[in-house]
Amino acid sequence: MPPQITAFFTRMGSGIKGFSAAQRTLAIIGVAVLVLGTVALTSWLAKPAYTPLFSGLKDTDANGIVEQLRKDNVPYEIANGGSTILVPEEKVYDERLKAAAAGLPSAAATGYSLLDKLGVTSSEFQQSVTYKRALEGELATTIQAMEGVKAAAVRLAIPEKSVFVDKTPDATASVFVETQPGTTLSPDKVQAVVHLTSAAIENLKPANVSVVDSQGNVLSTVGGGAAGSSSKQAGEYQERTTDSVKAVLDSVVGPGNATVAVAADVTGESAQQRSETFTAAADVPALSESTKSETYTGTGGGAAGVLGPDNIAVPGGTNGNSTFDSTDSTKNNAVNKVTEDRIIPQGAVKRQTISVAINQAAAAGVNLASVRSLVTSAAGADPARGDVVTVEVLPFSTAAADNAAASLAEAKAEAEAAQQGELMKTLVIAGSILLAALALIVVALISWRRRQRREPVDLGIGIEYPVAPVTALEPAPATSAIQLPLAEPLPLPGADVLDGERRRAQIEAMVAESPARTADYLRGLMDERQSV
Q1: 202-215 tens-digit pLDDT
Q2: Which residues form the signal peptide (predicted)?
Q3: Which neighbouring-strand residues pair with 52?
């Protein structure tokens, strides 16, 4: 193991030995939390991501799919009360293909597929009933595709055509809708269901379609339209008219100086109206003309008398001349015929009233007649229809505005105080945590430094210098001796120089043998000097 790692573990062990019981407990808890968090994170990352395989399943289909997953050893999860099956994301497409090959989930024969099972021997009644079932199935499938609709069922009542009936009754339809959990159908979607159903069936009017949800609520009644649709249309019209009138008044008397209230009476059902108008064509010759004249002239006999008791005729009146004239004229003229079909939609305005109150402080120099004319035009009021427009100048009360301003200021002050309190609370908590962490670090460092064990360094007894070998000198040849002066002895080095040389040699030897111990020794010397 490298000496750096060994030195690290040695210092860490020395520091741990210097911990108190409380510090050791905190360290153990921290290590345990770190290990458990690492294990939990690893297990969560290793867990596969589950994706819905099928949703909205029936019990029989869910059972078949689960058996297939068990057979393939594929992990799965069940949600939404068993109607949804989830599998790992990488297994979704394979399992869907296998389920499709096994005919799962099974789909009931609905719609026009029912007509494929009709044989050549089927009766007219069977064909009629099957065709009606096919229409119901196709409509139910289409409605079920709408957002928020979980399931749908359609029942049609289509009268049979007969030559013995002068007028065939209108067809009717009932639609049952089951919505997704937590979802309700808006009036617009209810109207969409109604118009979709009526447009798909011959002679089926939107007013003859009834819509009911799974909670038993009637969403659309026969002849009445969508429940609550008339009130919604009235509210939308009143809001739109109020905005139009208020925009005009704000430009005249200023914003906030006029109050507008609109009450509209709208129709709750739709109707159809047909009218025919005949007019004579001017300067157009007659299509046909005929004249018949009769004239009679002659003598006529008198009236005969009656027989008497003896069967003797009683004489009558006298004879005279007579004349008869008769003229009959027939003329066929071309006429213009205008046929008008009107459809009165649901929500048409039958009557409305507009009430306007103007602040007296801002009404100086304002002509009320002009204001009333502007309001009538802006609201589209029709006096012939019975619409009423009322404009009055009144002093406005400022108590509500003052109370609202005071409440707003108080709420603003409370919000600011609460915000400052939350900020101070956050700062106090953060400061406390920071101070506690700093105090813990300082205590740990002081304890570690105080309890750090110093290992003595063996510097040795002394340094032995090697003695160089000296060879003996050969005797010099006999010469005449010259007397030389004696050399002065060299001064010996001082004790401090020898001690320094010895210490340096010992340190070099120790560095060569154990670098780690040398580093610890030098670090201890530096700490001692810093403390001094």
Answers
A1: 888 888 899 999 88
A2: none
A3: 86
> What Cα–Cα distance (Å) separates residue 26 from each residue in 21, 33, 177, 308, 431?
9, 11, 62, 156, 21
In the predicted model, is pLDDT for residue 479 greater than 70? no
CA atoms within 13 A on the CB side of 429: 6
Q: Do 210 and 133 belong to one domain? A: yes
Structure tokens of 415? 């919000």
User: Could you tell me which residues are beta bridge partners of residue 515?
Assistant: none
Within the chain, what is the greatest distance between any pair of CA atoms? 243
Please report, for residues 38, 66, 261, the alpha-carbon distance to residue 52 in angstroms, rounded to integers and kept in the order given.
29, 13, 53
Q: Phi and psi dihedrals of 51, rounded to 5? A: -130, 140
In a domain, 379, yes or no: yes
The rounded distance, in Å, linking the Cα atoms of 362 and 253 is: 6
The total number of structural domains in the chain stands at 5
Residue 321: which H helix or E strand, with range?
A: strand 320-332
Split at pLDDT 50, 70, 90, the class of 483 is low
pLDDT band at 241 (very low <50, low <70, confident <90, very high): very high
Q: What is the mean pLDDT of residues 337-341?
A: 87
Tokens linked to 246: 């208020």
Same domain assignment for residues 56 and 178? no
DSSP strand E in 7-105: where? 50-54, 77-79, 84-88
Range of the domain at 370: 233-271+343-393
Given a cut of 60, is residue 460 above it in pLDDT? Answer: no
pTM above 0.70, yes or no: no
Work out the burial of residue 369: count CB atoms within 10 Å of its CB; fewer than 13 is exposed, 13-18 middle, 19 or more buried.
exposed
